[in-house]
Amino acid sequence: MTTRVLVGDDWAEDHHDLEFQAPDGRVLARGRVPEGPGGIARFHEMTAQAVAVLDSDDTGDPEVAVGIETDRGLWVQALLAAGCEVFAINPLQAARFRERHGVSGAKADRTDAHALADMVRTDAHQLRQVAGDTPLVEAIKVVSRAHKTLIAERTRQVQRLRFALRDYFPAALDAFADLDAADTLELLAKAPDPASASKLTTAQITAALRHAHRKHVDLKAAQIRQALRAAHLTQPQPVVAAYAATTKAAVAVLTVLNQQIAELHKAVDAHFGVHPAAPILLSQPGMGTILGARVLAEFGDDPNRYTTAKARKNYAGTSPITRQSGRKKTVTARHIRNDRLIDALASQAFTAIKTSPGARGYYDALRARGAWHQQAIRQLGNRLVGILHGCLKTSTLYDETTAWPATHPAEHVTQLAA
Fold this sequence. Notes:
18 helices, two-stranded antiparallel ribbon, alpha/beta
């Protein structure tokens, strides 16, 4: 019989508190090890000591199952490379587990490691094992998440710039529709205050529009020049000068963000384009390169992770939660979920109703039954996840007639998420 050792790993930035347990709950070893190669070496030494304490006659490699409250990082990768089963435990699950054995609220790193080891020993069948994703999909995850993060940062910077302009330079808001556009940034860098903006010539505005490859340049240049010269309330000159300095700084930040977002877009294209599943994802309605990369990155490419379409939907957070007690039954949306994934799937569903007749018909049927727009989009996203699961499992491209038969089964639209 194979020797099995259960490990609880309470991790911090620079160390790990470990507890090794036998299958019967006996504590075999405890200790704190540092992060890094030395800590991993010590982990293997403690594993060998735990196996020796068990005094097993088995001569094969022991099975080591580790419970830890994270699914990423160099330490987790080292455990996976060593052949350990790694269970990424949600901190909320660990907190609820501790409450089963005590209500005092006491908490310590050592007791946390003990609780994690107990969870792996008793509830491993209920826990999600860290997926065996390929390095290629891990690379896609890195660049797609970074790309999304920079876009969010750009949005924050644009909002800050908008609020500042509203306070001292409202004419700029009338003149420029997109504050992160290349022509807007070029002109604001040259003229960050009302006085200098009113002196911009038609030639300067036209040049900026041409650099940004705008259409109808002459008409837009005239509109911008007129808006910048219109009468508006103003701040005292010292205040305007101070705001102008902050605007120039914001423009510089947005210019760099635009450049780096474009570079990361190329990186996403490069990494996603060579993945074997890319053609299947790109064949889905409403799915482009960026959304496809995000969906693949968050789902992963472990072929054994999602045994059924329902399992994939549950992980995606698109399937509803049913709560029933006696005669009372409620159906609600999931709120504990992967936000990056649900955002990508919602964007796909919204685009799909414009490009796929089947998706549009499904959406319209939900709306006819009383669903709000967001409910219908979420339900459509749930259906699209099921279609994607089938395509990935069978390695086939999306087919409109197969995905959306002429007559939709009634059960497809009977249950609406609240």
